[in-house]
Amino acid sequence: MSSLLPIVQTAQLPQQCGGVVVREMVCRSLLNSSRLGGYTLNCYTGCAHGCAYCYARFMQRFHPHDEPWGHFVDVKINALEVLRRQLRRAVPDEVFVSSACDGWQPVESHYQLTRRCCQLLLQHGFSLLVLTKSKLVVRDFDVFCRGPAGSVTVGVTVTTLDDRLQSLWEPQAATVADRLSVLAAARDAGLKTAIMFGPLLPWLSDDTISLEVLLEQARQLRAERIWVDALNPRPRVWPSVAQLLRRHFPELVDRYRRMLFDGNARSRYLAELRQRVESIAAQQKLKRRVSICF
Asked: In CATH, which of 3.90.950.10, 3.80.30.30, 3.30.310.10, 3.40.50.1820 is domain 4-292?
């Protein structure tokens, strides 16, 4: 995990993301081994998308901020220099970009750290697994297409196809339509594609009809890799989720609490959800492409 040290200089966030505090920091490492295999790479700590369910809130345990999650971004200003140093010894493998932030969140349009790091990784024989909620990633297709054939998979995260739900749970992320257009553009550019459906929102976007529509969308876009994930009780997530529920879906607060923190209730919920996903994936002949992440 990167160890961040402050720099005297403090940058201002690009105008289109006003209200988010941006600080330039230096890190000691950038390319980190993943327990799932390969590596992860995050050029930023924090994310301006402000998704209510974001698991990366756990980073605040290591890098405390006065600002709430979604209102700060730390920029690892020496990312390229550190990556060059690490690549002298790192064995080429797949790199997940990004695991604890969105590498293409709005601040990336100014700093372009993720773009330049991806270019360097491809030049050193690494492959990339990209996952984002931003249409900015299309900017970097020129970099991806210069890598060896099949070395880059472009993926987007989609929690729901319902625009109202998306605007509540992911207030600053790109629209669902924009994210799906990223996959279409990646396919047209000859890049491999993937889609993460998750976390599915209990009793809001996890019913049979919703799942059928989600997986049908993936089938139409010809995504090679499809992941489905459930909402998890990760550290610091529940207060944010509970706040949103109290405001917009008060009738679901107790059901969510039981599903997340009652072991028996959670086991039943996950078993039923898995059965629905597997059944629909089989019906749509997607079983080999779907990975269930819970």
From this structure: 3.80.30.30
Backbone angles phi, psi at 76, to 5 degrees: -80, 85
What is the pLDDT confidence band of residue 1, given thresholds at 50, 70 and 90? very low
Predicted confidence (pLDDT) per residue in 263-280, tens digit: 999 999 999 999 999 999
H-assigned helices in the chain:
79-86, 108-111, 113-123, 141-146, 163-169, 176-188, 208-221, 237-248, 253-261, 263-283
Domain ranges of the chain: 4-292
Judge whether 6 and 63 are in contact, CB under 8 Å: no
Q: Annotate 156-167 with DSSP letters as a single string.
A: EEES-S-HHHHH
**Burial degree of 231 (CB within 10 A; 0-12, 13-18, 19+):** buried
Tell me what the mean pLDDT of segment 64-90 comes to: 92
Task: Return d(Cα 114, Cα 108) in angstroms, integer.
Answer: 7
**Residue 99 pLDDT greater than 90, yes or no:** no
